[in-house]
Amino acid sequence: MTSLKETRLKIDKIDTEILRLLRSRKKLVISAKKLKAKSKKPIEDKKREKEVLSEAKDPYETAILKKIVSESKKVQHRL
Q1: pTM for this one?
Q2: Dihedral through CA 8, CA 11, CA 17, CA 18, nearest 10?
Q3: Three-state SS at 78
Q4: Across the chain, what does the average pLDDT equal?
Q5: Is 63:75 a contact under the CB 8 Å cutoff?
Q6: Nearest to 56 by CA among 65, 45, 47
Q7: Are 33 and 43 in contact (CB under 8 A)?
Q8: Residue 9 has what pLDDT?
Q9: What is the end-to-end Cα distance of the chain in Å, rounded?
Q10: Are 73 and 43 in contact (CB under 8 A)?
């Protein structure tokens, strides 16, 4: 049986990886904003958002993806 301490260490490693991926995603979000601006496309793309959210398998994942999409749009609006 795995101890609580071991479980938390595993969670910490996953959290570190999630943060690394979020930072990479943010860079791409900024790049996408620049490309959208050049081609006169709006920041929001409901079809794309629906595609992203369709990857979620349960309410936990859906809520997290919705937050990621929402924060990504905020980043693009601030640029």
Answers
A1: 0.89
A2: -130
A3: helix
A4: 97
A5: no
A6: 65
A7: yes
A8: 98
A9: 49
A10: yes
